[in-house]
Amino acid sequence: MPRISGAEELKAYLGRVVGADARLEAAAATLGEIAAASVKMSDLIGLGRLYGHLGDSRGSTNSDGDVQKELDVLADEMFVEALRRAPVYGVVSEELKEALLLNPNAPIVVSMDPLDGSSNIDANVSIGTIFSLLPTLPEARSLEAHFLQKGRAQIAAGFVIYGPQTSMVFAIGASPVEIFTLDRNDGQFYHAATVGPIPKESSEYAVNSSNYRHWEPSIRAFIEDCARGLDGPMKRNYNMRWVASLVAEAYRILLRGGIFLYPGDQRPGYSDGRLRLLYEGAPVAFLIERAGGVATDGLSPLLDIEPTAIHQRAPLVFGSADPVRLVARYRSDPKVSAERAPLFGGRGLMRD
Ligand SMILES: O=P(O)(O)OC[C@H]1O[C@](O)(COP(=O)(O)O)[C@@H](O)[C@@H]1O
Ligand SMILES: [Mg+2]
Ligand SMILES: [Mg+2]
């Protein structure tokens, strides 16, 4: 049997799932352009220092005041160019202060983090590109207004991860989360897996625990209880993971479960954590829910947050249903965080 080309395979898949819906057709065409651009990104990232100092700072800052790396800016340029070729009305990018108008009359808008995990560029660790596709709003009075929709309104979302494998992980319409992996021999994406359901329980948590002293008591209590392992109320030994690339944590959790936390903390500017709602939290939450997991701001579903600004941050907790719901209990029930040891005694918190 001759091997079908990955582009055809991806297009055939998209063709099957979009049917006659014009917005989904636009979303499918856009995913095709993102996939094509990500092949170039993957090549460039694979060259690393042979290409140049991709991880060096440029002396400029992005929308949030973060110092931009060479690759942040290159990625932004490459993906904006790709989206110009797609039926996309406008784009919000982490690297652009304002929303950018692309194709008037197009039916969708895209929010993106062109390069996620910037601190890992020169460490040869997985990094990625995150994207969120929303329908345009007939009633919107400004370009920005199209982007200020709940994550639940997304018609497609996903990310590309540039790691040992380059893979595009996405869901479109009501379809499951799919993984297409790049075959570097021919530069084509091939279907690799359908994701889910994410296991309800897990023994892995991902958090930047160097922020422990800045967290509020309920988050400290939850992480302390995980770390107490079999001796604590969780009644299981945990492993901790922190890659510092959201795409890598999301990929791992989609495939084998676990919990990720980037809560708000007391550092100046971190009351809503670090991650951006439109192009980090919302697309990851879309995939996680679609795969049977749970994603919250620590308490409530992240996909129900009504954004008020394109670059706003939101606390993010996602992954296996049981531990994510348990974090909400720690946060909402003062007894759980303040008196947890006597309250739960020898009982396992997960099995109440
Ligand atoms: O350095 P910290 O505080 O642990 O934050 C790591 C988090 O920041 C991010 O790198 C933010 O994304 P950017 O690299 O796009 O700014 C996430 O990928 C990651 O989860
Ligand atoms: Mg990011
Ligand atoms: Mg980024």
UniProtKB/TrEMBL annotation:
Q: What reaction does this enzyme carry out catalytically?
A: beta-D-fructose 1,6-bisphosphate + H2O = beta-D-fructose 6-phosphate + phosphate
Reported cofactor(s): Mg(2+)
Q: Which residues form the Fructose-1-6-bisphosphatase class I N-terminal domain?
A: 57-192
- What does the UniProt keyword field contain? Carbohydrate metabolism, Cytoplasm, Hydrolase, Magnesium, Metal-binding
Protein name, per record: Fructose-1,6-bisphosphatase class 1
| UniProt-listed GO biological process terms | fructose 1,6-bisphosphate metabolic process; fructose 6-phosphate metabolic process; fructose metabolic process; gluconeogenesis; sucrose biosynthetic process
Manner of cofactor binding, per the entry note? Binds 2 magnesium ions per subunit.
Which organism's genome codes for this protein? Answer: Methylocella silvestris (strain DSM 15510 / CIP 108128 / LMG 27833 / NCIMB 13906 / BL2)
Could you name the Gene Ontology cellular component terms for this entry? cytosol
The pathway entry for this protein reads as: Carbohydrate biosynthesis; Calvin cycle; Carbohydrate biosynthesis; gluconeogenesis
Which residues make up the binding site for Mg(2+) 1? E94, D113, L115
Question: Which parts of the sequence belong to the Fructose-1-6-bisphosphatase class 1 C-terminal domain?
Answer: 198-329
